Amino acid sequence: MKKFFLSALVVGLSLASCTTVTKTASTLDVATGLEAQSTADLIVSSQKITYTHHTISAERKGGKQNVINAAIQAALAQNGNADVLVAPQYVLVKHHGLFGSKYKTVTVSGYPATYKNFKVAR
């Protein structure tokens, strides 16, 4: 009886061996371009703005580009609620700590611009 349990244990362990399972998936690029047949005038301010944005942890979790986009959004909202920032320049201050590094502040400068006179192109 003892030999039976020992042999069953050996068979069970051999069937439950360690294996590495690798799964892959491939994706297909789908063209999702959106084209609008309209035009608009871009009114660019002659005064350059500079804004310093102090990041929060939710913005930092999205990465560097997310931090920059949040700073641009805040700069445009504070300076007349413009639509786009023309010729943007960024200065990112990164804090290096014991558990890694994170972006603390982003200084954004550029020219705010708004879209006016939307026209349907024919």
Question: Secondary-structure blueprint of this entry?
Answer:
Elements: H1 2-15, E1 38-44, E2 49-54, H2 57-60, H3 64-78, E3 84-97, E4 100-120
Antiparallel strand pairs: 1-4, 2-4, 3-4
List keywords for this structure.
alpha+beta; single chain; 3 helices; 122 residues; 4 strands; 4-stranded antiparallel β-sheet
The average pLDDT value, as a whole number, equals: 83
The largest sheet, given as strand count, sense and whether it forms a barrel, is: 4 strands, antiparallel
* Rg measurement, Å: 28 Å
Instruction: Determine the strand fraction and express it as a percent band.
Output: 35-45%
Q: What structural class is derived from the secondary structure elements?
A: alpha+beta
The percent of residues in helical segments reads 25-40%
Number of strands: 4
Low-confidence stretches: none
N- to C-terminal distance: 90 Å
**Large-scale geometry:** elongated
Number of helices: 3
Please describe what this structure looks like:
With 122 residues, the protein is α+β, with helices and mostly antiparallel strands. The chain is 27% helix and 39% strand. The chain is built from 3 helices and 4 strands; from the N terminus they run αββααββ. Strands 1, 2, 3 and 4 form a 4-stranded antiparallel beta sheet that branches. Strand 3 (84-97) and strand 4 (100-120) form a beta hairpin. The chain is elongated, with a radius of gyration of 28 Å. The chain starts with a helix and ends with a strand. The relative contact order is 0.22.
